[in-house]
Amino acid sequence: MNSLSLKSLNKLAQAEQSVPNYRMGDKQPKIGIVHIGPGAFFRGHQAWYTHQAMKLAGGNWGISCVSMRSAGVAEALNPQNGLFTLAVLDAEPSYEVVGSIQEVIVATQQYQRVMDRLSHEDTQFVTMTITEKGYCLDSEGLLAREHVDIQQDLTTQANAISAVGLLSQALMLRFDKGLAPLTILSCDNLTDNGKKLRQAIISFSTIKYPQMVQWLSTQLICPCSMVDSITPATDDSLKSQVKQALNVTDNWPIKREAFIQWVIEDCLPSKRPAWELAGATFTKDVRGFEHAKLRLLNCPHSTLAYLGVLLDVETVFDGMQIPKVVELLENLVKEEVIPSFTAPAEMDVVAYKNDIFDRFRNPAIRHLVAQIAWDGSQKLPMRILPIIEKNIVENRSIKNLTMAVVAWFMFVRKRYQQQVELVDPLADKLLTVASQCNNQAQHDITLLMTISEVFSAELSQQPVFIKNLQNNYQQLLPLLTGDKTAWA
Ligand code: CS2
């Protein structure tokens, strides 16, 4: 059987599979985009948008991917000339070979190549999916200067290990060469992602590269964007499914749902990929979309994930089969989330939420709750705590939102009890707190509030917040000993 590569494209095209027309024969677009963090989400989302844009309108928008540390994606995709299969899992699955990626570079192994790409005149855009923790921000959303990675990048001349350090260095090279800066698009689930990224780069550069700060302040464009498509991790069954459907072996295919959305702040330079032809929306106001998505999708998603782990369910689909869980999510959204923000004028919020819950019920998507549960300390401050803060000020209920916070805490305690790895940059601190719990709500919630990286001083002293957390704690305690009767 053939392996997926440029050589196998003709055969696939003859078999009427969907292949990248812009890479057939000796056609190879130049690289115009560098992407940092080539995980599954990027490959199912932005790589696909750029692929569609080049299919429909051409352009030199080949993507060079940079992996900050791990070599897995490079090892899988470089032998395939960057090609990979995207399986869209709907009622009927469909398959498409995506060709926008041309190479994957690992920063820890080929740092100079990364710098060459980023400072090349053909490179116009950087997109990034480095997850919340990759930005090294503090609880105010500003660059955490004391973060170990940032400290190292600020104080040594060694190769940068943080994305902000790496980008700042690359911008400095462009400044020296007399090139325009890059347009840098954050594609992570952070509120005001572009603004925060821009601020972080400028604040880093103020210390390390002060000579270019004026230039950055006037010319650096970091649009805000909202990204959406449920993309579970690849498993072995996907590889065999793709092998059967396409008759080629693909080292690392990607699967996602059919729904996909990308809303980008309308401030991009005119020379850019025709992402709008692939369905991306350009708007002056991303905020409403971003709030709607973080609050109506990611907030219930995390709530479901933590409750799901406590209830021993495997996937989001499984969790959506438990009536009590669905009832909680419905109340959460209706009473506490929808009244908390202003949606874009054109959005029917209830229909939007119903569609999201239907997406959670897609039986073709096996999205593991354990995967969504990762990095809770980074996700809660983006998708749950701001709603609680707003509701407290506006005197609305928070009891379902605090249930989500307590479910996270119980999840941490369960990981500790079962000695299962806790995937979270704050794991050590969280597990230490878990080790000191004694099942007394007051005592344990007081301990939880010492996690100042997650709970601001102001929030952790709000009596109504503490009271709700304590009540929810009593309610969820039985789950820690495996007693699920209240949820049956
Ligand atoms: C999920 C998201 O893992 C998670 O935290 O909530 O990855 C979610 O699937 C995407 O944001 C959907 O666009």
From TrEMBL:
The keyword Kinase belongs to this UniProt entry's keyword annotation: no
Stored SUPFAM superfamilies: 6-phosphogluconate dehydrogenase C-terminal domain-like (SSF48179), NAD(P)-binding Rossmann-fold domains (SSF51735)
Keyword field: Oxidoreductase
Pfam families: Mannitol_dh, Mannitol_dh_C
Domain of life: Bacteria
Residue ranges of domain Mannitol dehydrogenase N-terminal in the record: 32-276
Annotated ranges, domain Mannitol dehydrogenase C-terminal: 285-476
InterPro entries: 6-PGluconate_DH-like_C_sf, 6PGD_dom2, Mannitol_DH, Mannitol_DH/Oxidoreductase, Mannitol_DH_C, Mannitol_DH_N, NAD(P)-bd_dom_sf
Protein name, per record: Mannitol dehydrogenase family protein
Protein's organism: Shewanella electrodiphila
